[in-house]
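Hello,

I think I submitted the S-adenosylmethionine job twice by accident. Can you confirm which output corresponds to this input? Input:
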Amino acid sequence: MALTATAFEWVCTLVRRESAIVLEAGKEYLVESRLVPLARAAGATDVSAYVDGVRIRPDRKAQTAIVEALTTNETSWFRDGAPFTAFSTAVVPALKQARASARSIRIWSAACSTGQEPFSLGMLLADSLLSEGWRADIIATDLSTEVLDKARAGRFSQLEMNRGLPAPLLVRHFTRVGTQWQVNDSIRKLVQFQQLNLTSSFAGLGQFDVVFLRNVLIYFDLETKRSILAKVRKALRPGGYLFLGGAETTLGVDEGWDRELIGRVSVHRPKNGGQA
Ligand SMILES: C[S@@+](CC[C@H](N)C(=O)[O-])C[C@H]1O[C@@H](n2cnc3c(N)ncnc32)[C@H](O)[C@@H]1O
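Support: Only one job matched these inputs. Its output is below.
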């Protein structure tokens, strides 16, 4: 049976409340296909029956599983290329001057999915600042505990490795374990994973020199985007850098940012160096 309107609306409300992700009318098929495995595992006759069961007898674990099933976790190594080139050719050299006395930088990969983004940053730092005796901490967060478990394990299939990882980096930073590839400890120890909902407070995270907040704002409404960008501004050190996804911008959303073009990439920096 097709997903009922009641089940669809209940799922949309739950997902929006818990993650801020907006599921518009017309996404019934997406909801149904993502929830089929959960319905099957629960022994329900179909997705509507499964959703009705959770709706009538509230079950926290099942609700979390539904929200996580509706996050889109698409990612790859050095995704889109240009932001990572801008990071290593312009941002890292600039930070080398700005942070010369501390010789230490902090980076946040917000909405890190299965870890390719923070590990890509770690590999770039291993070949630059770290080899010169600097310290780098990468904090990687996501809403979904399922993707975080995979990221923490640092193991990837051949198919995942084929998505954007240059062969020399595979050889240098990964070890084959059966049919999978394990990221080496030298890179893995740079990244600290933790669960964080972007709608919650960022107060406990500390301050960052660079934030990668890529390919996640697209799922939120304008008000949520604005509130997240305002919190990110406060989490950046004066003169810090924000990288967004190719389809995302601060323009018309939060006016507290200057935009700087580095190569083909628009990098966002708090106005007045963050002192406004
Ligand atoms: C498409 S992935 C982007 C991964 C990576 N940043 C990239 O660009 O390749 C979006 C990620 O955002 C996470 N996400 C969705 N809503 C979130 C929220 N409210 N708080 C934190 N993370 C969220 C999802 O779990 C998913 O892993």
